Amino acid sequence: MPDPSLYVGREQTYVKHFFLERYLERVAYIIYSFQSDFVYVDGFSGPWKSAAESYNDTSFSLALKQLRAVRLGQKEGRRKDVTFRCQFVEKDPRAFAELKTTVAGIDDVTIELINGKFEDHIADAVKFVGQSFSLIFIDPTGWTG
Description:
Blueprint: H1 11-32, E1 37-42, H2 59-77, E2 83-90, H3 93-103, E3 110-115, H4 122-129, E4 133-137
Parallel strand pairs: 1-2, 1-4, 2-3
């Protein structure tokens, strides 16, 4: 569980990371009990203020870690192959460039990156999800719309 003292002034990020670490795995196992594909969409991906060069303290990294663990658990425990796909949307050009560089070497997961406002790309998210079960995280920082 994340240390709350590291999130002063970024409480919404703490809640998001808490949820990802505590519940994403559970949700994915439930979905994989009746589906073989899961889609995770993060409408405000960052990275915002990562304290680690590996970005392991970011929401996209936490989600990938949790979903990879579930995929491995499904394969080992039930001998069931499952897939997951991720769509990461980020409007800030600098944060998007960091995100793009960070996920460039990932080849075990289908990842779609979008540089722009999430609300302008809802149709892209719907198309990416298709008929799969999805978890769509919409947690903007400072959004008032």
